[in-house]
Design brief:
Length: 392
């Protein structure tokens, strides 16, 4: 994807005297600590913040359903898990959405009964229509799928189920309330809560890598004050070239669905991870930015692009889902090395300082993500991201 119009516009605006007007890079605090904190629903507008749940519009539901890296993998995992269990296993689909997508896949794969629970009344109403259509087409048996209105944490099912499907994974894996939803499902809905084969996915992970973000480098006070974002991360398409990774990605958060100690309240301190700034990545990033900029024909701007390429703006975060117990079916919103690719999930860029920090190859960065959980699925998690820079 080309540099966004806004980014290209920002570059062009700087064209006459680019290096002299470029906002200064940050001076680090005394201990070299960089941080960001935000609440899960912060970037999603009033409706989400009021309900406490991240809400989706029609285009978001469509993007999920047609995500070719996601939906077929779920179908594979569901079919694999129900193989040999046709007519026997009962299934709960938490957050079935307006198309009852995964519920219908499970029913077609032979589930004896599928309970499809949805918290948003309009989505549940439409899910019923899709189920009726699937019944009429003979794709599923009448009554095989039952759509239930409400939060999974508030409904009582007629029976405990053999398999829980829960695609409630955000761009930061836990941001859609996975801890509270899954812990409740372990206690009240699953027959074998601590058996990994009771869950799809079996784990939801957040990957992270330090990144440059061209707009952050190119725009600064007085025209634009990034501090006004107050820690709320920027969310970008996973293919956006405005964001380039400076190091290989690391696992910064993991929610294991069969975990008997899955927390629902308090602070979850995920293990600290270490990144080494990769000179080859910086050179490749400079080439990407320069290629975008050269279309403008300005050598000054190409040099500016090269310097943007080694700026640390923050940590890029994105999800990876492990769907099967053997660890062979994964859904990744970026490639295995963090490559940009098409996905309905966003790449979340948590800016770690008001101005970017210039890095060099072999500099190191350690980072940890602490998640504060409020107990209920409608209490959005709060995130605290801390990073320390260790210059080479
Ligand atoms: C990411 S969408 C997934 C929709 C659909 N399952 C799919 O895979 O395309 C998540 C859906 O779950 C619903 N949801 C989230 N947490 C829920 C919960 N604990 N109980 C019921 N619905 C929930 C949301 O309203 C939303 O419709």
């Amino acid at each position: 994807m080309a540099l966004s119009t806004a980014a290209a516009g920002a570059l062009c605006a700087l064209a006459p005297v680019p290096n002299s007007v470029r906002p200064a890079a940050a001076a680090l605090g005394p201990a070299g600590t960089l941080e960001a904190s935000w609440t899960a629903t912060d970037s999603f507008g009033d409706r989400s913040a009021q309900a406490g749940l991240i809400a989706f519009d029609e285009s978001a539901y469509k993007a999920m359903a047609s995500d070719r890296r996601r939906t077929p993998q779920f179908a594979r995992a569901i079919q694999k898990r129900l193989e040999g269990k046709a007519g026997e296993w009962s299934v709960l689909d938490i957050g079935t959405g307006p198309y009852a997508l995964l519920a219908i896949i499970a029913a077609k794969a032979g589930a004896r009964k599928v309970y499809a629970v949805e918290a948003v009344p309009e989505a549940a109403r439409r899910a019923r229509l899709f189920v009726a259509k699937a019944e009429k087409n003979g794709d599923v048996r009448p009554g095989q799928i039952e759509v239930i209105d409400g939060l999974s944490t508030e409904v009582t099912l007629p029976e405990k189920v053999d398999l829980v499907i829960a695609e409630i994974i955000g761009s930061v894996a836990s941001e859609e309330g996975a801890h509270a939803t899954i812990r409740d499902a372990q206690l009240r809905h699953a027959k074998r809560p601590h058996d990994v084969s009771s869950w799809i996915p079996v784990a939801a992970q957040t990957l992270a890598a330090p990144c440059s973000y061209s707009l952050h480098s190119l725009l600064g006070p007085p025209e634009f004050d990034w501090a006004k974002l107050d820690g709320v991360p920027v969310r970008l398409n996973c293919r956006a070239s405005e964001v380039q990774l400076l190091a290989d990605p690391q696992l910064i958060e993991e929610v294991r669905f069969a975990d008997p100690a899955l927390p629902v309240t308090g602070r979850v301190a995920n293990p600290r991870v270490r990144f080494a700034v990769d000179g080859a990545r910086l050179a490749a990033n400079a080439a990407v930015y320069a290629a975008e900029i050269r279309t403008d024909g300005s050598a000054d701007l190409a040099a500016l692009g090269a310097s943007v390429a080694s700026d640390l703006s923050g940590l890029a975060l994105w999800p990876r889902l492990q769907l099967d117990d053997e660890g062979t079916i994964f859904v990744e919103s970026r490639g295995p090395h963090g490559e940009a690719q098409k996905s309905h999930w966003t790449t979340v860029v948590a800016l770690l300082s008001a101005r970017p920090v210039a890095l060099k190859p072999a500099d190191q960065l350690t980072a940890s993500l602490t998640v504060e959980l409020g107990g209920a699925v409608t209490t959005p998690p709060r995130y605290l991201l801390r990073a320390d820079l260790l210059p080479a």
